[in-house]
Design goal:
The chain contains six helices and 17 strands. By secondary structure, the protein is α/β, with parallel strands linked by helices. It folds into two domains: about 90 residues, Translation factors (Elongation Factor Tu (Ef-tu), domain 3, Beta Barrel), CATH 2.40.30; about 160 residues, Nucleotide-binding domain of ferredoxin-NADP reductase (FNR) module (Rossmann fold, 3-Layer(aba) Sandwich). The two termini are about 30 Å apart.
């Protein structure tokens, strides 16, 4: 088992960065040091609100001093409601880093990154690491409406090619992020590139169909509900071609996109 840390960590700050979307910075030097792009942490509140199950969150970024992690989440239920009530200095029970990270060791010169909605959460950490490796980066991020974008100033300040898409046409390309990919895939030269993606399951299913004949590898981070985060409960299983049943929390969350089995709008485990 890989090194991980489970301890009471302290909230440094958090803020609402878009309607109903929050960024929280949690001090935990050990997790911050060990974390790799694509990994996640399992979080449980300990400040008086009893929420039994931990919640998994992708690691969004590492603080400038290297001692804290940042997470992005949408306030949609009891667990995230409790999380959104935390203040500076409040404690959190954090387990991590967990899961398999993106494989960045291969001989590639550029990255084509596709993010849908809050699938952008692990992407900033990935982009920051790829830039230290001197990789070219093309990032396309799609949301329903422009109000759901955040940190565009940060992304725009980085040495990357950034494209935006909105389903209602309020910003950038008018359509889904996969519509952008389908329309523009042939507009670029992809020699030496690898593909990376994260977003809702249906988006990844559509992306798989679009890029299946593109001759470079694709890694994606899958979003799936999980209770334990350690492979014990087996509640986050999916089917991977030629490998069978795999746990998103331990064998993933990063998988080869072209090996994931999607059936009828859901994963092969359904």
């Amino acid at each position: 088992m890989k090194k991980q840390d489970s301890r009471i960590s302290l909230v440094r700050w958090q803020k609402e960065i878009a309607p109903g979307i929050f960024c929280i910075e949690i001090e935990n030097p050990k997790i911050a040091k060990l974390a790799q792009p694509g990994q996640f942490v399992h979080v449980k509140t300990v400040s008086g609100w009893e929420v039994f199950w931990r919640r998994p969150f992708s690691i969004h970024s590492i603080s400038e001093d290297g001692k804290a992690i940042q997470l992005i989440y949408r306030r949609i239920g009891k667990g995230t409601m409790c999380l959104s009530r935390l203040h500076d200095g409040d404690p959190l029970d954090v387990l991590g880093p967990l899961g398999q990270p993106f494989d960045l060791k291969g001989p590639f010169s550029g990255a084509f990154i596709v993010a849908g909605g809050l699938g952008i959460a692990p992407v900033r950490f990935l982009v920051e690491r790829l830039l230290t490796l001197n990789k070219k980066i093309l990032l396309v991020w799609g949301v329903k409406t422009e109000k759901e974008f955040f940190e565009l100033d940060v992304l725009s300040s980085l040495d990357i090619s950034l494209y935006l898409a909105t389903e209602d046409g309020s910003e950038g390309f008018h359509g889904r992020v996969t519509d952008w990919v389908e329309k523009h895939l042939k507009d670029f030269h992809w020699d030496g590139f690898q593909g990376f993606g994260c977003g809702p399951m249906l988006m990844l299913k559509n992306l798989q169909s679009i890029v299946k004949d593109v001759h470079f590898p694709w890694q994606v981070s899958l979003e799936e509900r999980m209770a334990c985060g350690l492979g014990v409960c087996q509640g986050c299983g999916i089917r991977i071609r030629e490998k069978g049943f795999q746990m998103v929390c331990t064998e993933g969350p990063v998988f080869n996109l072209l090996e994931v089995e999607f059936h009828g709008g859901s994963f092969g485990s359904n």
